[in-house]
Amino acid sequence: MEGESVRLVIDTQSDTYEQAIAAVQAAYGFNPVALASDWPEVPTPDPRPGPERLNGEDLGEGWTERLLFDTIAAVMPGARAVLRRLVDLGGTASYDDIQDYFADHPETPIPRARIGGTLTSVRAVCRRTGPDNNTRLLELDNRARVYRIAPVFAEGLRRAFALADARPDLLRQVPACH
């Protein structure tokens, strides 16, 4: 009736969103059945974790957990395995330790002569994915013959690798075609 007020009560514990909208539409004289049929289906959210859940705060030099994940997702599987090994070792390992570990690795064998090139590819990816072309994620100390990842980056990489374990579908699996 025109000029009369309507009191509307919606129980948020038992009424669905659609029921609440339909009640409001009915109170204002709209046909809720016709309007509800035009509504698009609500997509079901992906329950798996994604990179958007990683920390976006600056860990140092512009690196964030998201950028670290983007880096490990973009590198070749061998380079990713070397980064993971360095992270597992606390961020520092000698050239010889890394070469020995991967020389006869059952899943990711990398010949001694190719470790350097494998890690050079990490620097190339960092130039693309890192903040301001920052390639200092992985440091090479030729004099001491040591690979280093700063502790704060190693911790961020640890979280990025946890996501990579949960979502291997987000990682580069095969070489890019040229």
Please give a structural write-up:
With 178 residues, this protein is mainly α. The chain is 44% helix and 5% strand. It contains 7 helices and 3 strands; from the N terminus they run H-H-H-H-E-H-H-E-E-H. It has helices at 17-27, 32-37, 65-74, 77-88, 95-103, 115-129, 151-166, and strands at 92-94, 139-141, 146-148. Strands 1-3-2 form a 3-stranded antiparallel beta sheet. A hairpin with a 4-residue loop joins strand 2 (139-141) and strand 3 (146-148). The longest helix is centred in the last third of the chain and has 16 residues, at 151-166. The protein is elongated. The N and C termini lie far apart (72 Å). 21% of the residues are buried.
Strand order within the widest beta sheet: 1-3-2
Structural class: mainly alpha
Our count of helices gives: 7
Helix percent band: 40-55%
Gyration radius (Cα, Å) is 26 Å
| Mean residue pLDDT | 84
Strand content: 5-15%
Low-confidence stretches: none
SSE pattern: HHHHEHHEEH
